[in-house]
Amino acid sequence: ENFGTAVLRSILSPLLIGPTAIAFGTDESATAKAVIDAVRPFKQVRITGGLLGDRAIDADGVTFRSPSDGSEHRLTPEESMRIQTTLGSDIMMAFDYFPGYPATKKETEHSVELTTQWAQRSLAAKLKLGKKASKARKQLLFGIVQGSTHRALRERSAAELTQLDFDGYAIGGL
Question: Which helix (H) or strand (E) holds 171?
Fold first, then answer.
């Protein structure tokens, strides 16, 4: 079992208790509405949770709902660095935006732009937190190259991120 499967299983397992239905569609909102409308007439059927693209992405960060209890959360590059610093991660990953696969060129361009902006903010937050931290060992920070299957955008992302002072680089979106 690979890491991605393990993470997905840990998120979905609490939702998959008893008889389960899973719906897929290209329009997440329309798919969710169709499922809700389909089960509404049946009093014995209950929707106990869901994992949807229930998130809002903006220049500041991501707002999303927990798949386990529906509570709303906000994650920014600064909060991501605070969490990873607190956890004592040996290698921290800069906050980035993976648009999913497949992604259009326009979606991917937006992903590269946000990833670069968030990488700059992640670095600044790490430096600020590092001054307050009393850890004897160094926590490394890696930038994550985005670009999906668009070669020119991957190259652009790599060029922009290597201009920043990261300890290393990861290739995102694989």
Answer: strand 168-171
Q: In b/e form, how buried is each residue of 94-115, taking b as 16+ CB within 10 angstroms?
A: bbbbebeeebeeeebbbbbbbb
What's this model's pTM, rounded to 2 decimal places? Answer: 0.68
Query: Could you give the 3-state DSSP secondary structure of residue 153?
Result: helix
* Distance between CA atoms of residues 81 and 95, nearest Å: 8
Distances (CA, A) of 25 to 2, 35, 73, 164: 25, 11, 25, 38
Query: How many Cβ atoms from other residues are within 10 Å of residue 25's Cβ?
Result: 12
Per-position DSSP letters for 46-100, written without gaps between them: ---------EEE-SS-EEEE-TTT--EEEE-HHHHHHHHHHHT-SEEE-------
Q: In what order do the strands lie in the sheet with 55-57?
A: 55-57, 62-65, 72-75
Tens digit of pLDDT at every position of the chain (174 positions)? 555 455 555 555 555 555 555 555 555 555 556 666 666 666 655 554 444 456 788 889 988 877 778 788 889 999 999 999 888 888 999 999 988 888 889 999 999 999 999 999 999 999 998 766 555 468 999 999 999 999 999 999 999 999 999 999 999 986
